[in-house]
């Protein structure tokens, strides 16, 4: 009895210690006291519960779950359901957590809160939304703001991943978390300008909130703002401002945030900006997407996008085996998804295996008819790249749901025209027009009005036939258009033009329907036209010219300055009294008085003394010293102006004074240079 009393006293003291430590938040010390109590009474339910709570508070979720599973007889689901589900949730065993919550006999408020979190992680957004709406409606405590934040996160996820138009719950955006979630919802709707404003407001609220806490440093603030800045950079990327986005992404990475999910998303977005360029940087960034725990932080679509980009990066870096391995894994996970098979086809094309790529795409189109249209478009593109335009046209025409689309019709007609297959092009027009006729016949009763697209196709078909000389075939289309709109003068003119080559009499009859010249007069507001910007400019310019003319006529105003003519350069010894040689511009050989050179005449008279000396007979050779010596080359019409004894040389024949001296100086320089070279 004494021993039992002593044990009870020790247990009471230990419980007091547990209570005190729990209130102080010292769960490590409390755990020691609980373990001592369990040594006294190993199946104490309260002690076991306290041990599980202490382990959870210390972050030892695996050990806490082991304690629960070990003592299942004592710790039944009714007693410990929340703690068990929470441990499973924190250990990312989300499906197990859901089963634990659903198996609980009583759904407490704590379990409902956790249920909402579990549904969000499972991406069951509709059920999650209903759970939070119920919680907000039936709860009144200090956690209402957190519940509204979670509700706004669900709305943002629906808008982003499921493209659902979000319901307005009238949430007051008083916190930066609510503002951020609202911005994410706007991004999902494509309202990027509004989203960026919301993010700016969220940043402002975040700075205000954190500035009130004196323990928060600037680095802590920037770390908290990293996710907001990351979303801003994403919007910039969507808007095409890739340089700004890249700069902001790199700034966030330099901060080294602890959120591995944020780092993975940013790294993935940088890789998408780099594409096939800067692959070395992309290979560094892809390591951030492989960090531990990333798969638990991101949605399935985010993880899938990252895997797609890994496969594309492997293709761009010529890692063919890695690319095939990744794309095959993606295809096994999502057999109906287009991207894995498209990546495989792209890799085959890089290896010059175009036929194999087309075969791969054809097999996928046969297995998944719902996605066949996009695959066949890719097949057609490959055929065009190979130069098989006709085969590409056949593939495009096999896509039944797109045959009648104006874009497809235009593409086929252009391709057939390139191949000079006019009959096939006209057949494409005919099939599309017939489709619209059948469709509208099924939609309307009695009357059968033509839709704008239908009429546009008929007009394009008529214009195409007229352009390629198919007048008879164009007439039926033009008549149909004129029937729909008898006031269309342009169509009537085309119809008359076509009939004029086929049936002139019919053309004459139709020409009576043309409006008269009186009815075709345009109703133009002359005053408005004259006061328009262009007319005012022309009128001012014309007025300016008229004023100039009047000034010229009246002899008033400034005299217009004439451009000064540059005087031509004359020879230094030019004599204005001597009439210039009219043939001076002709080469010497072409002049009328040229007699040719007399070779060998003065050979014997060449001086043989020192340089510069003259021979005894040099004076006899000087024609200027002979009084009766006639000019060597008489010029027509110059005898009357120049006396027989004149020694003036015409400007064309003159040499500049000092020319021999210059030549001599050049020779001396040349010699000097040669000497220096030696």
From TrEMBL:
Gene3D superfamilies, per the entry: Tetratricopeptide repeat domain
Broad class of the protein's primary localization: cytoplasm
InterPro entries cross-referenced by the UniProt entry: Signal_recog_part_SRP72_RNA-bd, SRP72, SRP72_TPR-like, TPR-like_helical_dom_sf, TPR_rpt
TPR repeat residue intervals: 226-259
One GO process term, biological-process aspect: SRP-dependent cotranslational protein targeting to membrane
UniProt biased composition (Basic and acidic residues): 572-593
Sorted UniProt keywords: Acetylation, Coiled coil, Cytoplasm, Endoplasmic reticulum, Isopeptide bond, Phosphoprotein, Repeat, Ribonucleoprotein, Signal recognition particle, TPR repeat, Ubl conjugation
GO cellular component assignments: cytosol; endoplasmic reticulum; signal recognition particle, endoplasmic reticulum targeting
Residues covered by region (Disordered): 539-678
Coiled coil: 94-149
Biased composition, class Basic residues, residue ranges: 560-570, 662-678
GO MF annotation terms: 7S RNA binding; ribosome binding
Compartments, as annotated in UniProt: Cytoplasm; Endoplasmic reticulum
Biological role: Component of the signal recognition particle (SRP) complex, a ribonucleoprotein complex that mediates the cotranslational targeting of secretory and membrane proteins to the endoplasmic reticulum (ER). The SRP complex interacts with the signal sequence in nascent secretory and membrane proteins and directs them to the membrane of the ER. The SRP complex targets the ribosome-nascent chain complex to the SRP receptor (SR), which is anchored in the ER, where SR compaction and GTPase rearrangement drive cotranslational protein translocation into the ER.
Protein name: Signal recognition particle subunit SRP72
Organism, as annotated: Ramphastos sulfuratus
The encoding gene: Srp72
